[in-house]
Amino acid sequence: MEQCLILVKPDGLQRGLVGEIISRFERAGLKIIGSKMVKPDKELLHKHYEEIGTMISRNGQDKYDFILNFMQRGPVLAFVLEGIEAVVVARKIVGATEPKSALPGTIRGDYAHMSYAHGDEHEVGIPNLVHCSGDPKEAELEVALWFSQSELFDYPVAHETFTQPKK
Hints:
This protein is α+β, with helices and mostly antiparallel strands and 167 residues long.
């Protein structure tokens, strides 16, 4: 089974959208195998954004600083999803990174609207509610950065317990 890191960013928590966001992944059949609330420091965010390369590196220093400042506005809810092609499925649910380009029916398309141009003009990070791993390799690195193995759990979901062959 593939794993995927999801971060509900400070704006998602501040707007009270955590339940809605989680329910979309669960309705798609993805299983939450670990979760925690974290107040990320600059070191963790540096590793996440620059070393793993999930969004932007220091070659766009202003944008990098906007993102770091935005991600430190409050806590984030970090969780790991597991499922068949979990990254692709989760990215469809999340929608395009730029909220104004995200399709209706996606998390960002339904609950966010800011453009990159507006963020640049006002020197702010884009409030796009969630981070989602970009590909399976990135997901492996991100999950290991945000979670220890002891924080991840293996358990059957309801449909697995009802479909197990009798012994």
